[in-house]
Protein 1
Amino acid sequence: KAGVTQTPRYLIKTRGQQVTLSCSPISGHRSVSWYQQTPGQGLQFLFEYFSETQRNKGNFPGRFSGRQFSNSRSEMNVSTLELGDSALYLCASTGQGLNYGYTFGSGTRLTVV
Amino acid sequence: DQQVKQNSPSLSVQEGRISILNCDYTNSMFDYFLWYKKYPAEGPTFLISISSIKDKNEDGRFTVFLNKSAKHLSLHIVPSQPGDSAVYFCAAKKSGSEKLVFGKGTKLTVNP
């Protein structure tokens, strides 16, 4: 079955702009989580969505937001970009019960200039 | 406060030998642990996991050991192959939550 798909793979934005990243989970998975990876901080949890509801949120400013649609696809948005937002943004989808698995996409590399 | 720690930033082993990667955690509420392998600019690839009700889980060349009293887990790779060279991340979660807490990773180099 298809894996977790993230688009776009690469993105260059200017400080002050906003950006939207997209994630399509594995078919049948209803939970989608987002992570930020930077060299200094490692992999940090941003938030998790399940059935269109945010269930959990990490310690990131309000400029980072997300949403999930009825087909479980998710988007995350970062407004008023800062240089420090340059990172690899990873999405993961999770199944339930016997179908449990925590699978990551290939990520979106965001560069803020 | 780093709840999951991988104290060795790097590890180098010879092909065919055993690789042992270590991970310590501080939060006793964690009850599910995962190991991922990662290449630069790619997403982590799931390797193996273990629930806190077990102390060992094996999958091919990969074995994870969990010592709950010491809050320590380790990943054994036997035999190590050059293709295993990557950064390995340990992650932990609590039941009822899908939030993973990651260690900083250990870069494994397997020399031919």
Protein 2
Amino acid sequence: NAGVTQTPKFQVLKTGQSMTLQCAQDMNHNSMYWYRQDPGMGLRLIYYSASEGTTDKGEVPNGYNVSRLNKREFSLRLESAAPSQTSVYFCASRAGGTQYFGPGTRLLVL
Amino acid sequence: AQSVAQPEDQVNVAEGNPLTVKCTYSVSGNPYLFWYVQYPNRGLQFLLKYITGDNLVKGSYGFEAEFNKSQTSFHLKKPSALVSDSALYFCAVRDPLDSNYQLIWGAGTKLIIKP
């Protein structure tokens, strides 16, 4: 039981490049989330998925898209990366009221 | 607007002393409250939560938190700090009327335990 896994762990992009951050959970949870973490700002919700086939915007969705491919996987896509998207990205899944987090993806956009 | 405040960016405590990490919240109705811990270069780990019942909640690694409705606070405590408790601590609140279970997060408090 790996819990929540994320790939890659670290990525460097140039402005304008695109990439997809992958997230998978093996806990059979319905709900999944994407956050970004920036110094001094806590976590901010980008998108979430209440169940397979549904996605909704969070607090900071601009510049991102998501796909809930199946119950296990929830990917985050940056179509045209900007330096403001330099951050650490966390995926989480939820059981009851508790969210369980992956190890994060550290993204640097130059 | 719903919000969570962690008024201290950093808390320094000597090993063996009691520690407190503060959290206050503003949310309509009765909140669901959470504490998470983040060790360096790791994801967040769940520590404890308050939903209803006893105001003193016990969690992982010897931590506990006290819900105080009149002061709208949910401070994290531990009777005797360990060096290994050094980490970043986040308080979060969920509006129980929010069916999407979104959490509002505090900015985090860095806890440093000195030997």
